[in-house]
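Cross-check.
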Amino acid sequence: MILSELRDNTRSLIDETTPTPILTNVEIDRFINNTLDYCYSRIISKHESFFATTDSTIDLVNGTESYALPDLDSNNQTRVEHLLHIKVAYDGSNFRRAYPIEPIEIVDTNYQSAAYTQNFPRYYLLGNNIFILPTPTANATNAVKLWYVQRPSSLSEDTHVPAFSPLYHRF
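Predicted model, tokenized:
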């Protein structure tokens, strides 16, 4: 179903089929997109590979631990919905899997020094950024590989279609 049909169905559900509706298309579209975001999140929480995965790379910069996540939408928010796998190559060629940590773990300096090595890289997410630990000591091109589930774009044009099966568009 395309956005204009979803909008018509929504108006029908709320019994607003009069020639002069109370809600604008913008308000209905916001409701539809919020509902779709909820559906995407629920589907991914149960079946993380339901949507196609995307991969991307990031260049490492000497002395920099924070990097912007790729794939920003029109509101400058990342479309990385769920990280599946990350590999880091501090030398640019020998990739090692990076493992997540919780941001609270960073305040524990004993844990930090013991656990963060280039042979056992770690990462955490904060906002639209990914933090790579330990901090790189040299530049390396395409040295971080990310595999992730991409958050689908919001529906904004009448002809846009949700990113999941039409069987579920009515939900």
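The beta strands are 53-60, 66-68, 80-88, 96-97, 99-100, 122-126, 129-133, 140-150. The chain has a mean pLDDT of 84. Passed to J.P. for a second look.
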